[in-house]
Amino acid sequence: MRRKKRMEYIKLLRKYFKRFRDYRTREKELSRRILFAVTDEERGRYQKEAEEIASFIKAGFDIIGKTDSIKERRIIELHYVDGKSWDEIAARVNYSYSYCTHLEDAALKRLSAQSSVKAFLDEFKNKCGI
Predict the structure, then answer these.
(1) What is the tens place of the pLDDT at every residue in 83-110?
(2) What is the spatial distance between Cα 95 and Cα 125, in angstroms, rounded to a whole number?
(3) What percent helix, strand, coil does the chain show, rounded to 5?
């Protein structure tokens, strides 16, 4: 049962980080839209969404910062922050593809075992209805 719960947190953390990556892209788009908004109402709507996304992204960086291993943090950052593919990451850090995915898996296991990350993921799950 514990193993099943642990796997659930790892899957949830992956979902969070995938949404994190999507939100980073959306954040850039919103910045442009805010600059070129025609009305104050439109600008306000974009600004509100941008603030919500910024909060979500900050939480992601806080979670990444909890990673103890520099190697694991680098892999997580390249994949989820920079949006690099596993092939690109392997070439950049000069590790094999499989070692990079192993490091990512190890990082997510360690992160998802932390009580503060579990609490955050439970909140994320309830908020997003996952």
Answers:
(1) 999 999 999 999 999 999 999 999 999 9
(2) 33
(3) 85, 0, 15
